[in-house]
Structures are given as C-alpha cells and as structure tokens.
Amino acid sequence: MRRFVIYIFSFALLASCTVRYSLSGGQFSGASTFSVDLFKSQTALASPIYAQRLTESLKDLLLSQSPLKIAESNGDLRYEGFITEYRVAPVAIQGNETASLNRLSITIKVKYTNTLEPDLSFDKTFSKFADFDAASDLLTVEERLWTEINDQLLQEIYNASVGNW
Question: Domains plus CATH for the chain?
C-alpha cells in the first residue's frame, strides 16, 4: 500500500510540472495583442510610402513569428517610432574619384512599450544599410533596397523586443 501511495504522489508531482516551448523563442510576457503606430518620417528624403511599408512589414513580421493578435491601438505590446535618417552616400571611390557603389542608410527610432512588464520597454535606435551600383538610379533599385534593409531592421527590432536575445 505504501508503494501505491508513493506512485500516486510521484505521478501527481510530475503531472503538475509543465514546460512551455515557443517555436519563435519569444518572450511575450503573457501578452495577447500588439499594436503598431504608423512610423513617421522626420527626414525629407524618406518617402511616405517607405514609412507605410515599414509599418506594415513590422505588423506582418509580428503576425507571422508570434502568437499575438493585432489591435488597432493600445495593444499589450506597443510599437511606435520615427524614421530619423534616410541617406544615400558614396562608399567605394575609384581611382578617377567617382563612386562605384552607393549606400542607402536608414535609421529608425523605436519606442517599444510592454504594458504587462514595463521594465522590458525601451527607446532604441536601429540602423541598417544596403549598397547598390552607383551607375543605377536610386529610384530603380529602391524597392529592392527597402526589402533588404527592412528584413534586417525588423528582425533586430523583434529580437530586441520579444525575441529574448
């Protein structure tokens, strides 16, 4: 009989233990929703289309890599920010003093608010760049550069906010 009681107690103890796994490795603090305000441009060179694309891309990333649902405003996790730099500069100068490569650099300031665990909130600046052939017109390669830069920027924002890295 004593052995039976020990088995029952052991089973009850083990059954009460749980382990939670997350395929994305995210730390969501019990949050169920997120909201993303439109990222506004504070630089003259950034297109309003880019600001909208950046905002929508962040929403798409959070929807695809987290269990969170989107809220129009006041989500448990909130993202807002500004595009503070959108600059094209030569990076590879040749012998005849012309550039063979140009670099598009984009810097954004993000305010992340975790309403459930405020100590995880932050204000950070993220910056990424992509190079392109100087013989190419920026307007012809801009869409490709946006995608390349946004992929890096948004993954870095995700990792800093909920990626638990």
Answer: 2-161 (3.30.160.150)
